[in-house]
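Priority: medium. Attachment 1 of 2:
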C-alpha cells in the first residue's frame, strides 16, 4: 500500500485532535466531576447516573433530527467546511464554559455538556463525510482505521497529563483542589482540540459536491424527502443502517456510561482514570489491526468479531464486582471499540453516492444517534428502578444480537470493491 497522502494524514489528524474531548469530557473526567458535584448536592449515585443518561439521550436526539438536513445543505459546494468549522468552534467554546461554572451547579454542568457534545458530534458528521474527499474506496478501511488508531494514541497524551494533575491534587502533592484539577483537564481539552485541528483546516477541502442552487435550504429539504422516498434504491445501505442502529447503540452506551458505571459499583475515581488511560493505549494498535485484517478477511467479518466481543463484555459486566473485573472488561472493549467504529464508517462510505456524502452521513448519524438514545435511557431507567447500575447492561446483548443478524444480509465489502 502506497504512503498516505497529505490530505489523508490531515484528515486522520483530526481524530488525534478531537479524541481529547471524547476521553476527557465524554468518557472519563467530566462524568466523575459531574457526579461528585451532584453527590455534594445530595443526589444519589443511581439518580445522577440516570440524569447523565437522560442528558446524553437529549443531545443525541437533537443532533439526530438536525443531521440529515444539515448534511443535505452541506453537500452544496463550499458548505461542508463551513458547517464543520462552525460545529467545532461551538464545541470548543462550550467546553471552555465548563471551566467557569461554579461548584455545585450540576444542572448547569449538564446543560453546557449538552452544548459541547452537540458541537463535537456535529463536527464529526462532516468530518466523517470528508472521508470520501480524501481517499478512494480501496483505501478507506486503512484510512478510517488509522484515524481511530491515531485518535486513541493522541488522546493518551492530554489524558495522561490530566490524570497526573488530578491524582497529584487528590494526594495534596500540588496545592490545588480536585475541582481545579478537573477544570485544568477541561482547559487542556480545548487547547488540544483547537491546536491539532489546524491540519484539516488548512489541507482538506470538499471534492465531491452538488453545484449551488437559488434556494439551497428549500431544495435540500426536497432532496432529503426524495432520498427518503427512494431509499429502497439503496437496498444494502438501508439494511446496513438498521444493523448499525442496533449494534452501535450498545457500543455507544458502554463508551459514554463507563465511568459512571464504574463509580456506582464502588471503584475509586483514580482507578477508573488509570484503567481508561490503559484502554486508550491498547485500543490504538487494535484499531489499526482491525483495518489490516479487514483487507484480508473483509470489514464485514471483522464487524462480526467486534460484536461478539461486546456480547462477552455485556455478560461479564453484569457480574462486575472488583477493579480486576473492570480491567478485564476495559481490555476487551479496547480490543474492538475503535475497530468496530472505523470499519462501520468505511463500509458505509463505500455504499453512498460521493457527491451526497454529507446527506448520507447525516442519515448515518441519525441512525447512530437515535440508537444512542435507547441505550442510555434503558440503562438510566433500569438504574433508577433497581438501584443497581449493572442491572441494565444485560439488555444490551439483545441489541448486539439483532445487529449481528441484520448485518448478515449485507454483502462483503470485498465484493463491493470488486464491482467498482
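Attachment 2 of 2:
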Amino acid at each position: 500500500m502506497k504512503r498516505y497522502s497529505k490530505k489523508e494524514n490531515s484528515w486522520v489528524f483530526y481524530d488525534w485532535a478531537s479524541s481529547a474531548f471524547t476521553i476527557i469530557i465524554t468518557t472519563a473526567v467530566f462524568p466523575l466531576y459531574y457526579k461528585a458535584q451532584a453527590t455534594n448536592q445530595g443526589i444519589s449515585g443511581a439518580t445522577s447516573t440516570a440524569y447523565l443518561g437522560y442528558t446524553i439521550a437529549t443531545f443525541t436526539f437533537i443532533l439526530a433530527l438536525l443531521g440529515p438536513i444539515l448534511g443535505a445543505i452541506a453537500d452544496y459546494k463550499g458548505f461542508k467546511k463551513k458547517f464543520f468549522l462552525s460545529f467545532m468552534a461551538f464545541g470548543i467554546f462550550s467546553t471552555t464554559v465548563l471551566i467557569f461554572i461554579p461548584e455545585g451547579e450540576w444542572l448547569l454542568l449538564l446543560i453546557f455538556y449538552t452544548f459541547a457534545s452537540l458541537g463535537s458530534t456535529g463536527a464529526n458528521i462532516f468530518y466523517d463525510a470528508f472521508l470520501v474527499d480524501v481517499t478512494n474506496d480501496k483505501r478507506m478501511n486503512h484510512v478510517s482505521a488509522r484515524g481511530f488508531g491515531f485518535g486513541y494514541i493522541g488522546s493518551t497524551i492530554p489524558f495522561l497529563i490530566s490524570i497526573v494533575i488530578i491524582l497529584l491534587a487528590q494526594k495534596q502533592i500540588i496545592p490545588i483542589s480536585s475541582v481545579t484539577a478537573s477544570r485544568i483537564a477541561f482547559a487542556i481539552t480545548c487547547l488540544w482540540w483547537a491546536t491539532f485541528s489546524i491540519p484539516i483546516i488548512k489541507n482538506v477541502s470538499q471534492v465531491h459536491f452538488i453545484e449551488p442552487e437559488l434556494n439551497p435550504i428549500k431544495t435540500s429539504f426536497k432532496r432529503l424527502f426524495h432520498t427518503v422516498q427512494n431509499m429502497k434504491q439503496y437496498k444494502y445501505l438501508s439494511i446496513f443502517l438498521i444493523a448499525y442502529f442496533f449494534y452501535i447503540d450498545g457500543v455507544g452506551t458502554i463508551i459514554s456510561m463507563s465511568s459512571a458505571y464504574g463509580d456506582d459499583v464502588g471503584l475509586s475515581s483514580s482507578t477508573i482514570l488509570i484503567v481508561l488511560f490503559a484502554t486508550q493505549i491498547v485500543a490504538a494498535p487494535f484499531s489499526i489491526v482491525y483495518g489490516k485484517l479487514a483487507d484480508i478477511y473483509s470489514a464485514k467479518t471483522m464487524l462480526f468479531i467486534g460484536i461478539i466481543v461486546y456480547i462477552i463484555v455485556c455478560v461479564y459486566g453484569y457480574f462486575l464486582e472488583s477493579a480486576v473485573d473492570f480491567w478485564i472488561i476495559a481490555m476487551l472493549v479496547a480490543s474492538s471499540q475503535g475497530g468496530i467504529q472505523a470499519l462501520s464508517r468505511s463500509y458505509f462510505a463505500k455504499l453512498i453516492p460521493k457527491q451526497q456524502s454529507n446527506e448520507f452521513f447525516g442519515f448515518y448519524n441519525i441512525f447512530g444517534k437515535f440508537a444512542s438514545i435507547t441505550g442510555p435511557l434503558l440503562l438510566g431507567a433500569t438504574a433508577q428502578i433497581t438501584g443497581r447500575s449493572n442491572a441494565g447492561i444485560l439488555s444490551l446483548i439483545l441489541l448486539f444480537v439483532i445487529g449481528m443478524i441484520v448485518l448478515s444480509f449485507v454483502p462483503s465489502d470485498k465484493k463491493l470493491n470488486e464491482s467498482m
